[in-house]
């Protein structure tokens, strides 16, 4: 398998993919090591994961360069990702003893009741490329903390990073047999579905998630799906600083070239401030530097996958044919590498693909709305349900709106944000099950209830 730099289109290196035989050997190693790891006290496992984070930080420049070379995000955003993932891993490690240790619920003269969180066993984590550290740590860190062995399949667009993650986990003290990296693309992912894992944790697109769920259902083991989104933001007319709201939302839409599961993908602005918002938003987008991911100060760089250029071009042409207006951008950049101009569309409607299908790139549609009720209706008019946000001077107004939105996370005056302490979960085509927070630590365990009579 060739690993290609999306900015230069050159082959970085060639790596041997796994096949059924090599996957079976890796699974055997996991089986042989799982019991030993589950017997390590949770505090010790937490120390090892904290050491993993220290090693990532010590080697951040090298790791950021590898990440940027294979998936094309600006170097500074690669550093941000490693730091952000590290902070989440630390939170999980520090809270694991509290949430994973046995819990005595009641004791009477004769009866004790307690809950023990047992590890699932050997779990399979099939992952995405857009934030290999950030989405990876949501799964493999709590899975390891809970005492599981892990088969980790990085995306074929983040293979080198996946191998680094495996190497640093072992360097930190995770026994080699406890964390195995499966190399390859969809076929290798498909082969993993044939192996009897004790749980499947998938981060990726809705179509792949649906296939995996169908396949895993027969196995009667847990399946958690963290899938795509079409996340909306509503800007209400009481916003005081329209320019700063516009700048924050533009960052939420275009950070990582719009390749985030929780990127802002639809914007609704109340009539009274619509013109001022659009003007400030466009000014912000025009202020960004576009260029090679290794250049200083770049914000917009290349898309990781060449095929996505076609998706974006077709969303733009569909929108324009149906009456949308392009205020900025709109096309592929005529240079080597997967560059697409940051694109702002207005006069959009929900009949257009750009307002219905995940764009996963630097393009956004902005729509005028008259009131909160119309905003709520449009925000909910989607098959996805990952995050949703409201910008308003009034917290109560925002919370009343967010309570009506069918999404796993609600934002007031912020967006495109993840917290280790809060559950991360989707609804509808955005998937189900939670990672992060105490819920996400327990998702890698099976509870056992003890009824103990003296
Ligand atoms: P993808 O579905 O194309 O691939 C994801 C993984 O699945 C890869 O490792 C791939 O090799 C593997 N795969 C592909 N076909 C398979 C099959 N038939 N069986 C088993 N495995 C298979 O997704 P992607 O392009 O890597 O990631 C982008 C998507 O992920 C976007 O939709 C994005 O919104 C979503 N995402 C969601 C979250 C979240 O937390 N909800 C986080 C990051 C990304």
Would you write up a description of this structure?
This protein is α/β, with parallel strands linked by helices and 454 residues long. Helices cover 41% and strands 21% of the residues. The chain contains 14 helices and 20 strands. The strands form five sheets. It has a seven-stranded mixed β-sheet with strand order 12-13-14-11-10-15-16, sandwiched between helices. A six-stranded mixed β-sheet has the order 7-6-5-8-9-18, sandwiched between helices. Strands 3-4-20 form a three-stranded antiparallel β-sheet, with no helix packed on it. α2 packs antiparallel against α4, α2 crosses α6 and α3 runs antiparallel to α6. The longest helix is centred in the N-terminal third of the chain and has 26 residues. The model has no long low-confidence stretch (mean pLDDT 97). It binds nicotinamide-adenine-dinucleotide. The site of nicotinamide-adenine-dinucleotide has 30 residues, from α7 and α8.
């Amino acid at each position: 398998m060739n690993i290609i730099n999306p900015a230069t289109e050159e082959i970085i290196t060639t790596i041997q993919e796994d096949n059924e035989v090599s996957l079976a050997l890796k699974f055997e190693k996991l089986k042989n090591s799982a019991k030993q790891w589950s017997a390590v006290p949770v505090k010790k496992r937490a120390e090892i994961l904290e050491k993993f984070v220290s090693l990532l930080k010590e080697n951040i420049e090298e790791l950021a360069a590898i990440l940027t070379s294979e998936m094309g995000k600006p170097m500074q955003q690669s550093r941000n990702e490693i730091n952000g993932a590290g902070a989440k891993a630390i939170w999980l490690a520090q809270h694991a003893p509290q949430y994973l240790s046995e819990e005595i619920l009641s004791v009477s003269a004769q009866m004790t009741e307690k809950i023990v969180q047992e590890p699932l066993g050997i779990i399979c984590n099939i992952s995405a490329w857009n934030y290999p550290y950030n989405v990876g740590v949501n799964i493999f860190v709590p899975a390891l903390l809970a005492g599981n062995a892990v088969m980790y399949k990085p995306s074929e667009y983040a293979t080198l990073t996946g191998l680094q993650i495996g190497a640093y986990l072992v360097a930190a003290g995770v026994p080699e047999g406890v964390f195995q990296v499966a190399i390859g693309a969809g076929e290798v992912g498909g082969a993993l579905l044939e192996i009897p894992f004790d749980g499947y944790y998938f981060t990726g697109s809705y179509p792949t998630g649906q296939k995996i769920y169908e396949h895993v259902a027969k196995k009667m083991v847990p399946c958690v799906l963290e899938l795509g989104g079409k996340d909306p933001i509503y800007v209400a007319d009481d916003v005081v600083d329209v320019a700063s709201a516009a700048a924050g939302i533009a960052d939420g839409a275009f950070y990582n070239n719009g390749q985030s599961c929780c990127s802002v993908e639809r914007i609704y602005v109340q009539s009274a401030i619509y013109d001022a918002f659009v003007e400030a938003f466009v000014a912000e987008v025009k202020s960004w530097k576009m260029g090679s991911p290794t250049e200083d100060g770049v914000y917009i760089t290349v898309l990781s996958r060449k095929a996505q250029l076609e998706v974006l071009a077709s969303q733009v042409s569909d929108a324009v044919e149906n009456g949308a207006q392009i205020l900025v951008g709109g096309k592929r950049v005529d240079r080597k590498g997967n560059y697409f101009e940051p694109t702002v569309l207005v006069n959009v409607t929900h009949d257009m693909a750009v307002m219905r299908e995940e764009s996963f790139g630097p393009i956004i549609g902005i729509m005028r709305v008259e009131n909160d009720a119309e905003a709520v209706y449009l925000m909910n008019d989607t098959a996805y349900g990952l995050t949703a946000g409201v910008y308003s001077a009034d917290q109560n107004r925002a919370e009343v709106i967010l309570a009506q939105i069918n999404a796993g996370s609600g934002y007031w005056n912020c967006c495109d944000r993840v917290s280790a302490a809060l559950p991360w979960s989707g609804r509808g085509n955005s998937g189900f099950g939670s990672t992060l927070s105490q819920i996400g630590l327990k998702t890698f365990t099976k509870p056992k209830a003890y009824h103990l009579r003296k």
